[in-house]
Task: structure prediction
Amino acid sequence: MDQTVASAAGAGEPAARSAVDRFLAVLAVEQLENDVFRAWNPPQPNNRFQQSLFGGQVAAHAMRAAVSTVEPAHLPHSLHGYFLRPGRNDAETLLHVQRIRDGRSFTTRTVVATQDDEPIFTLTASFHRDEPGGDFATAIAPDVPLPDDIARDGPVFDPWGEDSPFDRVEVPEYSHARMSPVPRRAMWIRVRADLPDDPGLHAAILTFVSDMGVLASVHAARGGSGIPSMAASLDHAVWFHRPARADEWLLFDVAARSSAGSRGLGIGSMHTADGRHVASISQEGLVRLAEDVRPDADGALPG
Result:
């Protein structure tokens, strides 16, 4: 078993502990040679995402590979990624790390993720040795209640079902599940069991979460839930401002900023329950509604 997975075992309700350990096993990467790693994409409960590899998963794999080549004193402070091809959920992913720079204060890595010898995702991540400086941050949104203050009308849809490694509470006014007409999506989320004190692992999990439903806000801006559509991430960025634990409540609050040419942009933030601004996120994606596409000569919709 991966060392991180083993160290995470411990206290916690058995079903939650099992779900989280399974999730950590999915996020683990295996070093094949100096700067080449392999990630496995085993079948998940409920046939999660079917044959499509979740973008946040390959981004988290790339982050974990990059972290493995960086001195521990240099912590992730930003990532920028491009989704190049759809990944497959039934194939391994190879992660090729390029050591762009090793500096006294900053370290830079680029990772190319491939399946079947074709690149599916590229990531450039920057790492920073902590240093003193002024502190300023945007406050948590005042219109968002704490998770314990939100009336829970029932289970939130989750692709894992009961085997989810996450606790999730949707903010009703800006709910992905209810597809609010307001072009915003907000949810509280945390991993359901304790995690080890590994900043790189927590950054990878925040990377995974940062791809969860960003484009839903764009979909809402274009008309809500009643219109068939397809959505795919194109490029993605995360800035890690302050240390954060993925096993404590985080508010992921994202709003649509633009939609043009079937490309939509969402910008969001992550705050802790005590109001610390720990991360910022931006993502542009392809969002096609039925009205955006026309059948080709054979009557099929273009891909």
